[in-house]
Amino acid sequence: DDSIEKFRPVYHFTPEEAWMNDPNGMFFYEDEYHLFYQHYPDSTIWGPMHWGHAVSKDLVNWEHLPIAIEPDSLGYIFSGSAVVDLENTSGFGSKENPPIVAIYTYHDPVGERNGEIDFQTQGIAYSLDKGRTWTKYEGNPVLKNPGIKDFRDPKVSLQKDDAGNPIWVMTLAVADHIEFFSSEDLIHWKKSGEFGKGIGAHGGVWECPDLILMKTPSGEDKYVLLVSINPGGPQKGSATQYFIGNFNNGTFTPDDTMIRWMDYGPDNYAGVTWSNIPSSQNRTLMIGWMSNWLYANQVPTEKWRSAMTIPRELSLFDIDGTLLLKSVPAEELAKLEQGWYEFSESSNLPGIAVELKAELKDQDEFSIKISNELGEQIIISKEFGLVSIDRSQSGISNFNSDFATIHSAPMSWKAEKIQIFLDAHSVELFVNEGELVMTSNVFPNSPWKKVELSENLKNAKLFPLEK
Ligand code: FRU
Fold it and tell me: What's a Gene Ontology MF term here (predicted)?
């Protein structure tokens, strides 16, 4: 039925049916990118969480696989991560067939209902068959709750201790701060530090962190700590902030206390990075959940709910001496481009899946209008140092009073390059190759038909996208 599939994206990842939220457990192994996700298979509304699963060879074409991890007597399976244990430190496999170990939060609904506070713990499971089947560790939970209600979303990465030896580090969201734990075998965990009380944005609970080693433009090592927060994002509801600093002695020290956002739009949440990307690829890849807890359970799709953002590559850049994080579309997305054509001022759109590029010449102001025959529109602009996506008249919005609005973000430096990805219910804006990013859901009653540019935009190109 067409109306049921109306908002099904062409190239964004969605579950075949039912509910999805956060991306989980992403790792790369033997030519496959794995993507797990928070999933409730019995409804399009959030409920008892499972880990759904898909694999891809190119980050563009995804193969759906059976549910990977199901709830058990310890609780629902909340967000977490997975690592390839190449040295078999856990002993679950062998060096010849290294175990893949998933580390996730158990959320015990019984404890929650009974008003207890220790109902979130961390558990592990392993796979010896390239992520197809998972065995839960019989000693779960591996990290008990110390008496704090929000204690979740373990992101494990391999780091070096101060003697230079490899060590597993778990980055965990604990209510209003992050706690770090370390382990030699992924089973026994010891707290090594904490960060974040009184630093950064605190308009909501901290969730889904990630600790990432990156290079500065001058080649120096820096750690980036992603911290999703809900509510309290810059556009209301959910968003992901980040800190830049160092990681020593098992804890994170920020370079400064500036508040920074990875994506200034309303619809990029709980994004984390892939583990085990071969060093020859030399890139940091992340994907986010393209929704917002403000209205995620109400958006007007019928058979499934939620999509992921396009996969993105993260890197650091420097603007007037300040380090910031930028994100560009993963290069594999270029595979979707079915040629391109140049246009000026205005053009019809070739379909619901389109990429648009344009350059801004002298001024630092522009505007792009995307519309359909019903008079519905999205306006993307920069004016007075603010980059905005106006979705106030973009179509269906009656499901939530916060939806139909204008989202803006400050950009004090000049906008020069604009790149936009449109799909059935989304728009993703990358200014200056990802120096400023905004991701937004839109639900037009009829597909977008036309694009119009302000005259200072030059070299405009349209790329029809197809899988
Ligand atoms: C973030 C989150 C996580 C939690 C999961 C539950 O969106 O709230 O903190 O693990 O979703 O589905």
Answer: sucrose alpha-glucosidase activity
Nearest to 347 by CA among 453, 253, 442, 242: 453
pTM above 0.95, yes or no: yes
CA distances from 169 to 69, 166, 172, 248, 249 (A): 22, 10, 10, 11, 11
| Ligand 1 contact via 50 beta carbon (within 6 Å) | no
| Element (DSSP H or E) covering residue 464 | strand 457-464
Interface confidence (ipTM) of the complex: 0.99
The answer to whether the CB of 286 falls within 8 A of the CB of 312 is yes
Average pLDDT over every residue of 1-29: 93
Residue 176 has pLDDT above 80, yes or no: yes
Per the structure block, which two tokens stand in for 270?
Answer: 């709980």
- For the chain, give every domain's residue range: 18-329, 337-464
CA separation for the pair 369, 357 (Å, rounded) = 14
Instruction: Name, in order, each residue with C-beta under 8 angstroms of 96's C-beta and a sequence gap of 6 or more.
Output: none
Please report how many Cα atoms fall inside a 13 Å half-sphere around the Cα of residue 406, on the Cβ side: 10
Q: Distance, CA 40 to ligand 1 centroid (Å)?
A: 12
The percent of residues above 90 in pLDDT, for the chain, comes to: 98
- 86-134: pLDDT as tens digits: 999 999 999 999 999 999 999 999 999 999 999 999 999 999 999 999 9
Residue 43 dihedral angles phi and psi, to the nearest 5°? -160, 165
Residue 1 pLDDT greater than 90, yes or no? no
Q: Which of 19, 20, 21, 36 to mutate to test the pocket of ligand 1 (most atoms within 8 A of CB)?
A: 21
CATH topology assigned to domain 337-464: Jelly Rolls (2.60.120)
- Closest ligand 1 atom to the C-alpha of 105? 10
Q: How confident is the model at residue 2 (pLDDT cuts 50, 70, 90)?
A: low
Q: Which CATH code for domain 18-329?
A: 2.115.10.20
Q: How buried is residue 433: exposed, middle or buried, by Cβ count under 10 Å (0-12/13-18/19+)?
A: middle
49 lines ligand 1 (CB under 6 A): yes
Counting from 1 in the atom list of ligand 1, the atom nearest the Cα of 293 is 7
Query: What average pLDDT does this structure show over 177-191?
Result: 98
Centre of ligand 1 from the C-alpha of residue 65, in Å: 22
CA 285 – CA 251 distance, rounded (Å) = 23
